[in-house]
Write a structure and sequence with these properties.
With about 80 residues, the protein is mainly α. It has two helices and no strands.
């Protein structure tokens, strides 16, 4: 996210992730590509509702089996977008 300031135009997510994978792991690997595709569709996906401000991460909530908004001023209930089992 912080390297976006160095781009003159918004890069495609697919191209950016591909570069990130190669930089982070030091090589191309189809298994890593598939794993990141799954992450982008699940844990790293964005809610499909309009909201002001960023989503609150459920990882910042107090431990609970029923996490509501992380803060008292939270604007949406965060839901897991992947199986927790």
């Amino acid at each position: 996210m912080l390297d976006m300031a160095w781009y003159s135009e918004k890069p495609s997510l697919e191209d950016w992730i591909q570069g990130y994978i190669e930089y982070r792991y030091g090589k191309k690997n189809e298994k890593l590509n598939e794993a990141w595709k799954i992450l982008l569709k699940t844990a790293y996906s964005s809610p499909e509702i309009y909201q002001e401000g960023p989503s609150e991460s459920i990882f910042c909530a107090r431990p609970s089996m029923d996490v509501n908004p992380v803060s008292s001023w939270g604007n949406s209930k965060e839901k897991l977008r992947y199986s927790s089992i």
